[in-house]
Design brief:
The complex is a heterotrimer of chains A (237), B (305) and C (580). Chain A folds into two domains: 163 residues, Rossmann fold (3-Layer(aba) Sandwich), CATH 3.40.50; 65 residues, no CATH class. Helices cover 37% and strands 26% of the residues of chain A. Chain A is globular, with a radius of gyration of 17 Å. The termini of chain A are far apart. By secondary structure, chain B is mostly helical. The longest helix of chain B is centred in the N-terminal third of the chain and has 31 residues. Chain B is globular. The chains are: A alpha/beta (237), B mainly alpha (305), C mainly alpha (580). Chains in contact: A-B, A-C, B-C.
Amino acid sequence: MSPLLEVRNLSVAYGAIEAVRDISFSVEEGQIVSLIGANGAGKTTTLRTISGLLRPTRGEVLFRGRPIHRQAAHEILASGIAHCPEGRRLFGRMTVEENLQLGAYVRNDTGIEADMQRVYELFPVLGERRQNKAGLFSGGEQQMLAIGRAMMSKPKLLMLDEPSMGLSPIMTQRIFDTIKELQADGTTILLVEQNALAALALSDRGYVIDLGSTTLEGPGLDLLADQRVRAAYLGEG
Amino acid sequence: MTTLLQQLVYGLILGGTVGLIALGYTMVYGIVQLINFAHGEIFMVGAFGALATFTWVIPEGVKGTWYITLPLMVIAGAVVSMVIALIIERLAYKPLRNAPRLAPLITALGVSVALKEAVRIWYPGATAPLPFPKEFLTGSIELGSILIPKTGLLIIVVAVVLTVLLQVYINTSRMGRAMRATAQDPDTARLMGINPDRTIVLTFAIGAVLAGVAGVLYGVHINNISIDIGFQNGIFAFTAAVLGGIGSIRGAVIGGFVIGLVKTIAGQYFPGGTQYDYVWIFVVLIAVLVFRPQGLFGETERVRA
Amino acid sequence: MSEKTFFTNPAVSRVLGVAGAVLAVIAAMLPWSTFLLNKGAYPDKATLQFFDAPFELTGFRWELLIIGVVALVCAVAKVPAQRRVLRGLGAGIFAIGLINFGFIASAGGGLGAVTALDGTFAFGSVAALVAGVLLVLATIGQPLEEIPRWSTKLPTPVAYLGLVVSFAALLYVVSLTLTAGGQGGAASPYSGPMFLSFLGFAGGMFAGAAGLGVLKWISRLSEQHRVFSIVVLLLCALSLPFTDAGSEYWMTVAANIGVYAATAIGLNIVVGLAGLLDLGYVAFLGIGAFVAANLSGAAASQLGIHLPFYLVVIISAAIAGIFGAIVGSPTLRVRGDYLAIVTLAFGEIFQIAARNNIGGLTGGSNAMPNIPALEWFDGTAFNESITLFGAKLPSGVLYYFLIVLLIAAVMTVFANLKNSRMGRAWIAIREDEDAARAMGIKTGQAKILAFLCGAVLAGIAGAVFAHKTSTVSYESFLFMESVTLLAAVILGGMGSIPGAVLGASLLFVLPEKLREFSDYRLLIFGLALILIMRFRPQGLIPDAHRRAELAGEDAEGHTLQDKPGGDEPEQPKPQEVPAR
C-alpha cells in the first residue's frame, strides 16, 4: 500500500537561494512522523510547499498516490491536508468561534457544530471564552486554538509546525498529549519540531533535515538513541 | 441658522454619495492593499451605464414612472460598474498580485485614465456634460424652513441602509469571514481553504456595485453627469475612507458624511468660499494622516506575523 | 509536445530563420496596398498602381529591406547569441508588418487592401508579418543564449573612437526618429504609421544590437571613460539643431521635452532613489514658473519687478525648495500609499490656488502672459534665430541649448547625489525604512531632503519653462501632468538617469508624432501604463541596483518560477498605517 503522503526529491528555492534540496520522506497512514533539524534547515519551507503556499523547483509531492504539488493551497486543504503554521497565525481580530468556523470553511456538512463542541471539550478554556478575540489569548491557548482550527477541516493529514515554540514545559506537554490523542482518533500527523527529544519520543518515524537535505531517518526511538542525533540536537557528546 | 441647517442637509447628501464610493476603496485596500484609483471612474461608468439604459433601453411609455425606471437604472448602473470592475481586476490587477507595491498603484492610475478616455471617446456626446433624466422624483420635503430634496433623501437613506447590510454581511456570512480573514493574513486564509482570488473578486464586485448605485443616484440628484465626476468624487471618497480608517465599513460612510459636511460648511463660511472648499477637504485629509493615521475607526493592532 | 521537439531541431531553426529573413527582404519589394486609399497613395510607392520599381526602395520599405538583410546575414553566418539577435530583429519586422497591415486595413482599405482584391495582389504586410513570426519561431526551440561580453580593455584612442561613433550614431537615430514620417504637424496623412514603422525598425535593430551585447559594451565603455562620454554626449545633444531635425518646430518641441526631462530627473530623486511616491510633483514646476513670471516683469504681475535671470532662477529654486520641504514634512509620520495621497492633496491645493489667482500671483484663468524672453549678452533674444558656424539655426535654438545645459547640470547633480552618503541613505530607506533607521540613518531628515532636492530641480526647470513658453497658466500643472511625469520616470526605469530622459522624450514626442491619433492619446497613454507595469515594470533602461527587486528577478535576469501568492523574500509586506 502506498503511503498517505510521499515527498520525492523535493527542492524549493527563494529566488536564487535553495532552501530545500532534494528532500524525500514518506508518512504512512495513522503514524506520527517528525522532521527535526536546526533553524533554517528547511523544515518550514517543506511544510509550506506541501500545503501549496510555495511551488517546488523540482521533485514531487504525492498525497494518497496523487501528485498535489501543482495544486493551489485551498484545493490541497480540501483534499485533506491541514497545516497548522509556525507562529500559529490566528486571526487575531476575530473571535475563537470565528477562527474555528474559518477552519471549517471548506466543509458544508452538518457536523461542524458538533466538531466545534469537540474542540471546546478538548480545550475547555476555548469554550469558556469563545466570543473573545483570539489575539487576546496566551501563547499556549493560541496554540490550542490553532490546532483546534486545523482540526475543524477534518483532515486526513495534520501538519504541525513548531507547536511547542515559545511554550512553557507544562504547556508543551499538554500539546504533545493532545497530538497523541489526535493520532488515537485516526489522524495522521506530520510534525516539525526543534524540540527533538519530545518529538522523537512521540513519533513512529523521524527524519533529520540538515541544510536542506534529509541526512538520517528511522523509527523515532531509534533516532533518539542515535549518537549523531544526540550529539547534534540533544546537546550530548 | 436656517442657512447652516440647509448646508448641513446638502453636506449629508454629498456625504452619502461619497460614503458609498468610499466603501469600495476601504474594502479593496483592506484586502489587497491597493489604492484603487480607478474606483472613482467605476462610479462614473455606473452613472453612464444607467443613462444609456434610460436613453436606449427603457421604453418611452414608462420613462416617467419613477418606481419602474429608477430601479431599472440602479440595477443597470450597478451591473455595468461591476462588469467593468471585474474585467479590470482580471486583466490589470490580478497579474500584479505579487508585484512590488508601486506597480499596481501605477496600473490603477493607467486604468483610471483609460476608463475616462474610453467613455469620452465612445459614449455619444460625452465630451460635454450630459443631462441626466429628472422626470421622476422631483420636489423637496419641507422641514420648517429647510428643504430636503427627495433625491437627496434617497441618497442618504440608501447609503445608510446599504452600509448596515454590508456590515451585517461581512460580520456574519461565510464569505464575509473569508474576506476578513484574507484581509488579515492572506497566507493563513489560504491554509483555511479560502480561495484568495474568489474573495478578492467578490470584494471588487461589492465595491463596484455600491459605486454604481452611487453613480446613478448622483446623476438623478444633480441631473447631469460628465466624465469628470469620477476623479473628483473618487478623491473625496478616498479621503473619506482614510478618515474613517481604512478597512472599516462604518468608518468609510461616517467619513463620507464628514467630508460632505466639511465641504459645504467650508464653502459657506470659510475664507475663499466655494472656490476653496475643495482645499479644506485636503487639509482635513492631511491633518488626519499626520495626526491620526489609523483614522477614526481604524484598527491599530498589527496582524500577528 | 511534438511541436516542441520540432522547433528544438537545430536544422528546423536554421531553415525557419533563413526563410523568415528572405521573406522579409521579399516583403520589402512587394506592393503593400491593392488600391488607392481614400487619404491618398500609401507612401513609398507601396500602392499597387504606383508600384513600378520594386528595387527603388524608400521609407519603411527601405527600412524593412535593411533589417531583412541584417537578419539574413545573422541567420546564415555564425553570429554570437544568434537566437537573441534574430528574435529582436524578427520582432521589429513583425512590428513593421503589423503597423502597416493594421493601418492600411483600418484606414478604409479593409482586408482586401492588404491581400488580394479584384485579381490584384499586395501581400507586402502579410509577408512581413509571416517573416517576423518565422524569425521568432526559429528562436523558441532552445533557451536564449547569454548576452556576449565584449572586452572593453582597449587602447584609449580606440575606445574614444568607439564612443564617438556610437554617440554620433545615436544622434543620427534621434534625428531620424524626429523627422520620420515628415516634419511634425499633419504633413502627410500617413505620418503616424510611417513614424511607428520607423520605431519598429529602430526597436528591432536596437534589440538585435542588445542581443549581440553591443549596447552593454557601449554602456561599460562609457562607464570607463565617464568624463569623455559625457562631453561627447553633450556635444551630440548640442549639435542636434545642425541635423535634419533642426527646424523651429522641433527645437520648440525638444525644448519642451527638455523641461519635462529635467523635471522628471528631479522626480526621480524622490521616487526612484528614496522610493517616495509623489503624485503632485508638477506643483513644484508650477511654483518655479509662477515665481519666475512674477519676478521677470511679466505684464500681468503686480510686483512689477524685473530681476536678472540668474537671480530669478535662484529665487524660484529656493521657493520651490521651501514648498518641497513643507510637502515632505508629513513623511515624518506618513508612509507608502498614504504619502502618495498627501502629495496628491498638495498638488491639488496648488492647482486650486493657482486657478483662483491666489494673491494675484498666478493670473487665474487669464494666466500670466507676456513673460519677456531671455536675452543673450549681446541683446539677442532667445526666441530669435541665430547663425552659428555658418549654419542658420531656427528660432528657439538658444532655448534648446539652454535646456540641454540644464539637463546636463541636473544629471550631474543627480549622479552626484546618487553616489553620495545621502544617496545611499535614500536607497536604504527605499529598500527598508525600519532597517535604515536601525542603521542610524536619520530617515526623517533624509526624506524631507529628498523632497527638497526634487523640488529645487523642478523649480529651476519651472523658471526656464516660464521664459521659454512666455505664458504660464495653471492648466500646465494639472494632475495629469504629474501622472505623465511619473510615467516618464517609470517608463524609463526608476532611479536611472538616462531612463528619465528617454521616458520624458517618448511621452512627449509620441503625442507630437501621432497627431492623427490625438483623440486617442490619453487612452493609449493609460493602456500603455497598464501594459508597462504588466510586462516591463523595471522600465526601459533599468537602474542596475533596482533591476532585481522591481522585476522579481534574480541577478541573472531570469524571472522566478510562478508562485501563486508565493512568498519570495522581497514580497511586499502588508501595509499598515504606522500607529506610533
